[in-house]
């Protein structure tokens, strides 16, 4: 990362960065140190950067590495999956949130490897951009709008699917599906026809590793903020 030409570089840790987590660091590394070479490392920390131009612009970032437990003691920054490790932890006045885990149901695996408590916290904070990784198969971008359609989508994803017939006959599922369609069309009309400004969050699963191949085959993603 230090060799890249970008003016600012920000990083957080993940579950394979055991050196950075005292709980998973090997005994032989206890007294070792890292030279970050000008890279901003965020571990439960906020950073505000200024971007000069016609007018000086500032963006505030918050980074956190922890994930719902999914591995052994050598995995870093883990917490029990049913533990709420997020509520009230993210500052409201941020523009960009950087986490290792995705929020549940967004650029996530169908069974939900992401964190439901992080999703709840993002509903509270609603940053402009949320960047994460961890679930390699979720690579990509998603615009999230904090409305009833979004709530309906997340309820559908969280619903237990017993059988195709029971899902088809579930009136609440049909109601949520109707809400998703209605608010989706409303959002398109507002942004594309009337030119309204978006009030949602751009979520980015920035995993460079392609699925479970251990190969860096996913392209870096570039966005304008």
Radius of gyration: 19 Å
* Anisotropy-based shape: globular
| Arrangement of strands in the largest sheet | 3-4-7-8-10-9
Spell out the helices and strands N to C. EEEEEEEHEEHHHE
Strand composition percent: 15-25%
Q: What's the helix count?
A: 4
- How far apart lie the N and C ends? 21 Å
Describe the main β-sheet briefly: 6 strands, mixed
| Arithmetic mean of pLDDT | 88
What's the total count of β strands? 10
Secondary structure category: alpha/beta
User: Considering DSSP H and I runs of 4 or more, what fraction of the residues is helical?
Assistant: 10-25%
Describe the structure.
This protein is of the alpha/beta class and 225 residues long. The chain has 4 helices and 10 strands. The strands form 3 sheets. Strands 3-4-7-8-10-9 form a 6-stranded mixed sheet, with no helix packed on it. A two-stranded parallel ribbon has the order 1-2. The mean pLDDT is 88.
